[in-house]
Amino acid sequence: MLFNSFEFLIFYIVVVAVFFTLPHRHRWILLLAASYYFYMSWKAEYVVLIMAATLINYGVGLGLERSTSVRLRRLLLTLGISSSLGILFTFKYLDFFSSNVQEALEAINIFHAMPAFDLLLPLGISFYTFQAIGYAIDVYRGDTPAERHLGIFALYVSFFPQLVAGPIERSHRLLPQFRRESHFEPQRIVQGLQLILWGLVKKVVIADRLAVVVDTVYASSGSYSAPFLILATIFFAVQIYCDFSGYSDMAIGTARIMGYDLMTNFRRPYFANSVADFWRRWHISLSTWFRDYLYRPLGGNRVSRPLWMRNILAVFLLSGFWHGANWTFIAWGAVHGLAMIGGSLTADMRRKFSSATGLVRLPRLHHAVQVATVLVIAGSAWVFFRAQTVDQAISILVGFFNWEGTNIGTLWALGLSRFEMATALASLFVLFYVESVEEFTSQRALHLWSIRSVRWAIYLAAFYGIVFFGVFGSLEFIYFQF
């Protein structure tokens, strides 16, 4: 059941209608049942995995709160984390390790057929597993009390707006909200609908239309020269942002209508002026999860330079691996980790260069150069994220410099008609304008937004854009595969 489907619309309307008619003490039952139904509409039997993650971490939380023994508490936390990661490993990474072990053995002339399990990847398993693990660690640290109500905790793990693609919530933020009584508030309804509408525009008008060109080029990347490879990569950078941030907008909007506040997951990442800044803006719930539960426990930046470099690489390699069981994702994480380290090592040199060239006296130009540099790094890394293999990714990157045999007429053979391509480019312009207004807080734009007739004109334009220019079908959100 996709957010951008008619089935979800009916499901959500029914849930909200019943939600506001129920007394507060019974609402958790409705939301838990709705969340399990939402998940089971994909593959019913895999709801057992959510139940397992729930029971494991619920029990660990209670045990941690009741125990005063440091040794026992550490053992409980270790068992809880290893059990949760064990389920994740089995369903997401077991085949990857099995095939790679077989290749390694064959490389030294040991031919042994490793088992192929061919397990279907459970929807959203990486998201709810990390959310549950985060809770256990928070209880261990004393940052949040153990949740004694099993139903409330089960809802925390499976809350349907953010179940399959985040944001990855924190226990101290979300759990108390389920105990707080919410009311039908017109302002929250409007805010939620605004987010849902904008998320739909990103998904069906921009992301799914650009996906046609991206899929066409990347399916046979060796047949295209530099302009088309570069165009497809730029389109993918926009596609994945609109696809994922569109889902996050809709998740936050659907939760807000019912009175729950989910954390912001994106903050205009393509305006970042450094790789570090990019990760403060991109998939914020995951980047802060790794920061708080891995980077800082490893010592963060309070260690020697070599150890700091180790910490950065560990975080980004694991972040890449979190996304998928493929060397391409590990390479994607490595590119960002090395870029982060390179940025730190060259900081003094870049400051001297900016001073010597006079860039520091031109702050807008200096900022534009920084943003452009980050876009090149992030865009190049996206090639690894989208490619099927590391070899294909490297071939595409090399192809960026192959400008021979270019025929611009074949642009219309990439799956989009002239009208559809014009629609895609116009949508990109609108996206850039909106993001620019939000980034630079245009007072004129804020004044215009305060005018009711202008707001309604924008709402209607977005609605008609979805109806007449949206791509409707079975295109799932990209991050559903993680």
Supply database-style keywords:
19 helices, 482 residues, single chain, globular, 2 domains, mainly alpha
Strand-helix topology:
Blueprint: H1 6-19, H2 24-40, H3 47-66, H4 70-107, H5 125-141, H6 150-158, H7 171-179, H8 186-219, H9 226-257, H10 275-281, H11 284-295, H12 305-323, H13 327-345, H14 347-357, H15 363-386, H16 390-399, H17 418-440, H18 443-449, H19 452-469
Verbal overview:
The chain is mainly alpha-helical and 482 residues long. It folds into two domains: 21-183, no CATH class; 188-469, no CATH class. The protein contains 19 helices and no strands. The chain has helices spanning 6-19, 24-40, 47-66, 70-107, 125-141, 150-158, 171-179, 186-219, 226-257, 275-281, 284-295, 305-323, 327-345, 347-357, 363-386, 390-399, 418-440, 443-449, 452-469. Helix 8 crosses helix 17 (418-440), helix 12 packs antiparallel against helix 13 and helix 13 (327-345) packs antiparallel against helix 15 (363-386). The longest helix has 38 residues, at 70-107. The chain is globular, with a radius of gyration of 24 Å. The model has no long low-confidence stretch (mean pLDDT 90).
